[in-house]
Amino acid sequence: MLDEDVVIIGGGAAGLTAATVLGRSRRQVVLIDSAEPRNARSRHLHGFPSRDGADPAELTAAGRAEVRSCGGRIRAGRVVRLTRFREGGFAIDLDDGAELTARAVLVATGLRDELPEVAGLRERWGRDVLHCPYCHGFEVRDTPLAVLGGDNRPFTLHQAQLLRQWSDDVVFFPNRIELTEEERHRLVARGVRIVDGDVARVRAEDDAVSGVELADGEVVARRTVFVGPRFLPRDELLTSLGCAVGDDGWVRIDPSGMTSVPGAWAAGNVVDSTAQLVNAAGAGSKAAIAINHHLLAADVERAVAEFDG
User: S-S: 156 plus which of 93, 103, 228, 278, CB 3.0-4.6 Å?
Assistant: First the structure.
């Protein structure tokens, strides 16, 4: 007999929403959270109805209360191993030595942002070093903006063009990106100033970004720096489980979030680098409904077998 109907791994928007939907469906659900949210350094969240401008911790606290209000349980910890039983169901091993078992699992462990190695960048990350114009562009509109080149070339070039919607003072620092003549032409035509040369550091004064310093000592005054990180999914549990991975290197899911492993779902940034909070919450809800239907089908088959037996 398995301990739980569903174990959810990850306590962000996707995991909390799924836990609430499943709890309201009268399922036995446990959410395991390591308390390391991607947006931990952000002061405000945006684009989530009724919560725009709130501290991300407020959304998490409200979501946790909702999970508990419908019978869901929340457990602190880190899952170190996820395995599937041959006959179905899963074992979930935690870093404190405990083990849970469940009929189905949802992995919502998010992703990790890998920033370029530039001094001062990580210290300001989530405050005035940002990556998403849709999350933070409105708050820094009509101010001097920088876009810093890094390893995520397509994303960064798109950023430089996109941010002109929020400010007419955008400077692009290619840094390690070699621009083609066509790319350079399109940026200049759009009104983006290009400053070539290696970037040495992001400067800050009075607890705020003040400029971008080049290797030759030149400092270009800026108020906010946008950067394109490399998005690395925290998908080790999924890949170790044997979930199929697409050509892009990300775990494949169907429209409901189901992976190639029966009984295992994934939602949020762990399988979708572009998902904002509201998208992740929607994905968590969709996955939860699909999981409930998956369990329902098994419940019906078992009831029929017992009835006929």
Answer: 228
